[in-house]
Design goal:
Length: 366
């Protein structure tokens, strides 16, 4: 899977750009605030229909303009394709795949896949469980539209249940009205748990191997999916889910929100037996996050039969020369879009590399 061309109009600080990419490594150099990250994020937009920083659509439009347009052309094992996204300050965004409009963002999933890594992705390891759930959900949504829509239904049901908890006058009144949402939460949540568990089963071995390679075998990464929900299949998990919601009814009424369920799940990460969040150095946190991202690449390769596009936003300065070289030469089948504030050392890159310079929102091939 490779991006062949990026075209943007009034996208962030980029007025009008059209660039053709190389098959392997593409490096975008320039000073800070010139537009490197914006160009890389245009590809992410066409993969997932949103910014990796979760900006509102109107914030992605160039200052002083009312509309922005992004088009990405790509090739994959099924042939050529293109994705177009039009953002308007006053209207809902429009997405077209091969010139055909799609009604829902979920229908975009799977056409063009990517893995995105930036310095603040360290939050996958260092921050709250919500970041690790987000990490799992992004991958699962890219490869499974049913997961995307199931997660959406779960979140809507959870919001409705929490609204009832805020409005209820007593536990008895709550039990009369909350049943329908408990049923939907249990049904959708059981499917989510089962798919997350399977994802982590694949991830843990690949992340362990990748981390061992990055650290020359000096550290062992252990990963486990943690959930309060038990069961070997969806029916068993759903039954356990309903029982858990019922057992927590009084507690939820007192807290005014749902205290148990897959919205509380986490991924445990340990280095040499110790919790990396508690005992890891900044370097260990960063390397762990990178290991997860590289393992993510391998999982997507197994699931879709080809590598997604790897987007590396200003990460080389965080790595020593050996790890830079290993990262940039990960696999010749992989296309990488890399942004860097300074020129990348030629010794770290292979022959199939294309350099671009970005200055004040203008991108030129070097």
């Amino acid at each position: 899977m490779r991006v062949t061309e990026i075209s943007v109009v009034n996208w962030r600080n980029l007025a009008r750009q059209k660039i053709c990419l190389g098959e392997q490594l593409n490096i975008f150099c320039g000073d800070n605030a010139q537009g490197k990250t914006n160009l890389a994020e245009s590809v992410y937009l066409c993969c997932l229909g949103k910014s990796p920083r979760n900006n509102a659509d109107k914030e992605l439009i160039r200052h002083g303009q009312n509309e922005a347009y992004v088009r990405v052309k790509y090739v994959c094992r099924y042939g050529e394709g293109q994705i177009e996204v039009t953002l308007n300050a006053r209207e809902k965004k429009q997405i077209r795949v091969n010139s055909v409009p799609i009604a829902r963002t979920g229908d975009l999933m799977g056409y063009l896949n990517c893995v995105y890594f930036a310095p603040d992705e360290i939050r996958i390891v260092s921050d709250s469980p919500a970041e690790r759930r987000r990490f799992m959900d992004i991958d699962l949504c890219q490869t499974d539209k049913n997961y995307f829509y199931g997660l959406s239904r779960f979140n809507k049901a959870l919001a409705q249940r929490n609204n009832l908890l805020k409005q209820a006058q007593s536990v008895e009144q709550l039990e009369e009205t909350v049943f329908v949402w408990d049923k939907q939460l249990a049904e959708e949540g059981a499917k989510i748990v089962l798919k997350r568990r399977a994802f982590c089963d694949k991830l843990k071995e690949l992340a362990k191997q990748t981390h061992g390679a990055l650290t020359d075998g000096k550290e062992t990464l252990e990963l486990h999916y943690t959930t309060a929900l038990k069961g070997a299949n969806t029916a068993e998990i759903a039954q356990n889910y309903r029982e858990l919601l019922s057992a927590n009814a009084e507690k939820d009424f007192a807290l005014r929100h749902t205290s148990a369920g897959c919205q509380r799940d986490d991924v445990s990460l340990k280095l040499n037996g110790s919790d990396v969040r508690t005992f890891g150095s900044q370097g260990q946190l960063r390397t762990t996050a990178l290991s997860l991202k590289l393992a993510e690449l391998k999982i997507l390769y197994e699931l879709i039969g080809e590598y997604p596009v790897l987007i590396l936003d200003d990460v080389l300065s965080e790595l020593d020369p050996l790890r830079q070289k290993r990262l940039l030469n990960f696999d010749p089948q992989l296309q990488i879009l890399l942004t860097a504030a300074t020129d990348v050392p030629r010794g770290a890159v292979g022959e199939n590399c294309k350099f671009f310079e970005i200055n004040q929102g203008v991108c030129t091939e070097k």
